[in-house]
Amino acid sequence: MEGVTNYALIVAKTKDIKEVQFDDKRPPFKWLQVEGTEYSWAHYTYDKGRSHHTMMSPRIGVYSVGTVDRNSYGAPAACGLLTCAYKGKFYPAGKPFWDDSACTELCECNPSTGSVNCQKSQCKVGEECKVVAGVSTCVATPTE
């Protein structure tokens, strides 16, 4: 709808707000403590027109609202898969990742708990561990 002013209302546990990311950066939100609770809230006014934003946090609630003249809407923001915060980075559920540059600890985000589970592992036979674009990965061992 033309001329709609869109807002996001965000709620998170106060202890988690430092881990919230908005479009892959720390958000410019001013967080306010909900008195007598362990929660804080913030709001964000989107730029006019169509846009797409992402938010990531271990646990967060986002409600999207918009107003124009005498019309308005409100809906929970669409959620993707739960992400897990681990050692300062966010990882999507269902995509295993190596915790170290030697590929000895294979980890995965647990979507039901938001925590990361790791176990000892190694690359398959015929593969070696390489760091590619800053990410450890198993690649085929070069043949001579």
Automatic annotation (TrEMBL):
Q: Where is the TILa domain?
A: 84-139
Q: Specify the protein name.
A: TILa domain-containing protein
The upper taxonomy is:
Eukaryota, Metazoa, Chordata, Craniata, Vertebrata
What InterPro entries has UniProt attached to this entry?
TILa_dom (IPR025615)
The species is: Anguilla anguilla (European freshwater eel)
